[in-house]
Write a structure and sequence with these properties.
Radius of gyration: 20 Å
Largest sheet: 5 strands, mixed
Structural class: mainly beta
Oligomer: single chain
Strand content: 35-45%
C-alpha cells in the first residue's frame, strides 16, 4: 500500500480530510530528436519494427511523417515514414491490410509498412478519405475488420469502410456534422448498452441504430464545452467505464480555448440520455489539447494527463497529471509535470518497458518531440 499524508482542512467549521499521495512519480524530460519541418499532429505510440518496444510516430505541417525508433530514453533514431500527406492533422497507426505489420493512416492517405521500416519508406496510397482534423479507428460492425473515422469542421464526421484491397478507394458514409476536433483519442464505445458500438463527438453522440454503421441517430444530451467562437465545441474525449458501474462514461478536456476545463460525465441511466458532470479542474488557464487516461502511479485507478496547447491563456505552457486520490473519481490532486514547453495530442504507454506509464508529445508547429519518462519504478 502507498504511503499517504492526511491533511485536515476546515471549511466554515466543518472538517474534511484530503488524502495526499506521497509516492506520486516524477517525470524526466528527454528530447526525442529534431525534425526538418514543424510538427503538427498524427502522434501515435506503436511497435513499428516489431522489436518489442514502442516507437513514436509524428507528422508535420508541410507533409512529412516520421517515426522515431526507441533505443533508450535518451536515444531515438529518426526515420522518414512517408511524405505528401493529405491531412489537416489527424493520423493513426493500425494494420490496414491485415499482414501483421502496423501501417499509418493520415486523412486521405495511408502508408503501407513493407516489413522493412528501417530500410525503406512506407508505400503511399490515397484512400479517398477526408482531410481530417481527427482520425480514430474501431470495429463498428463487429466484422473483425477496422473502420476509419474522420472528422473535420469543413466536411463533417465520416466513417470509411476498408475494402479487401485497401489500395482501392474506401467506402464513405457520413455520420454527422463537423467541428474542430472532438472524437480523439477514444470515442467509439457502446454508449446505450445495446451491444453495438456508438461514437461520441464532443457535445453529442451518435447511436449506431442497426449495429452495422449504416444508419445513425443523434443524441444531443452532452453539455460541457464552449459553444461559441470559431472553434466551438472543440475537445479531447475518452470513453470508458470510469465509475465501474457497467456502463460507459466520458472524460473530456476543452481545447482551442485559453482556459480549458476538465471533467468527467457519468452515464447515469446507462443509456446515454441522463448525465451528471463531475468537476475535475475548471481553472487551468491552459488550452487542454491532450488527453491521456492511465494509471500513472500504479495504484489501481485511472489518472488523467493534459497540457497547454497553442491557445493557452497562461504566460507559461504547463502539463499536468490529475491524480485520482480516492479511487472513486471525486478527489483530485493536480501535479505539474512540465513547464514552459508546449503540448499537443500527447500519447501515453509504457514506452521503456519498466512497468509504468510514460508520455510522448510535441509542440504545436515546433520541431522537437519529447519523451516524459515516468520515474516511478526507477526509484524502487
Amino acid at each position: 500500500m502507498k504511503n499517504r499524508l492526511l491533511i485536515t482542512i476546515f471549511f466554515g467549521g466543518l472538517a474534511g480530510i484530503l488524502t495526499l499521495n506521497a509516492q506520486f512519480p516524477d517525470f524526466r524530460y528527454y528530447e526525442i530528436g529534431k525534425t526538418d519541418e514543424d510538427l503538427l499532429g498524427q502522434s501515435s505510440l506503436a511497435d513499428i519494427d516489431k522489436d518489442g518496444d514502442l516507437d513514436f510516430i509524428v507528422g508535420s505541417s508541410a507533409g512529412t511523417i516520421w517515426w522515431f525508433e526507441f533505443q533508450g530514453p535518451d536515444q531515438w533514431i529518426k526515420h522518414v515514414l512517408g511524405e505528401n500527406v493529405f491531412t489537416d492533422r489527424g493520423g493513426i497507426v493500425f494494420d490496414v491490410d491485415g499482414d501483421g505489420w502496423l501501417d499509418q493512416v493520415s486523412g486521405g492517405t495511408w502508408y503501407k509498412n513493407t516489413g522493412r521500416p528501417k530500410e525503406e519508406n512506407f508505400i503511399r496510397y490515397e484512400n479517398g478519405a477526408i482531410y481530417a482534423y481527427d482520425n480514430i479507428v474501431g470495429d463498428i460492425n463487429n466484422d473483425s475488420r477496422p473502420e476509419l473515422f474522420s472528422l473535420s469542421a469543413q466536411e463533417g464526421l465520416y466513417m470509411f469502410q476498408i475494402p479487401a484491397d485497401p489500395t482501392k478507394k474506401w467506402k464513405k458514409l457520413k455520420i454527422g456534422d463537423g467541428i474542430n476536433g472532438g472524437i480523439y483519442p477514444l470515442s467509439i464505445t457502446d454508449m446505450d448498452n445495446d451491444r453495438d458500438m456508438d461514437i461520441v463527438r464532443s457535445n453529442v453522440w451518435y447511436e449506431n441504430e442497426l449495429g452495422d454503421g449504416s444508419k445513425w441517430s443523434i443524441h444531443r444530451t452532452i453539455s460541457f464545452v464552449q459553444s461559441t467562437g470559431p472553434y466551438a465545441y472543440s475537445s479531447r474525449i475518452y470513453a470508458v467505464d470510469f465509475d465501474k458501474d457497467g456502463d460507459n462514461d466520458i472524460i473530456q478536456t476543452e481545447c482551442n480555448i485559453s482556459n480549458g476545463k476538465i471533467a468527467w460525465h457519468a452515464n447515469k441511466d446507462g443509456k446515454g440520455i441522463n448525465w451528471f458532470t463531475h468537476k475535475i479542474d475548471f481553472d487551468t488557464k491552459q488550452d487542454l489539447h491532450s488527453l491521456c487516461v492511465a494509471d500513472f502511479d500504479n495504484d489501481g485507478d485511472l489518472d488523467i494527463f493534459s497540457g497547454g496547447g497553442p491557445m493557452t491563456g497562461d504566460l507559461s505552457k504547463r502539463c499536468f497529471i490529475w491524480e485520482n486520490v480516492d479511487g472513486i473519481n471525486d478527489q483530485w490532486i493536480r501535479h505539474e509535470v512540465l513547464t514552459e514547453i508546449e503540448c499537443i495530442d500527447a500519447v501515453a504507454a509504457d514506452v521503456d518497458g519498466d512497468g509504468d506509464i510514460d508520455i510522448c508529445s510535441k509542440p504545436w508547429k515546433g520541431n522537437k518531440p519529447y519523451f516524459l519518462r515516468n520515474m516511478l519504478n526507477e526509484k524502487k
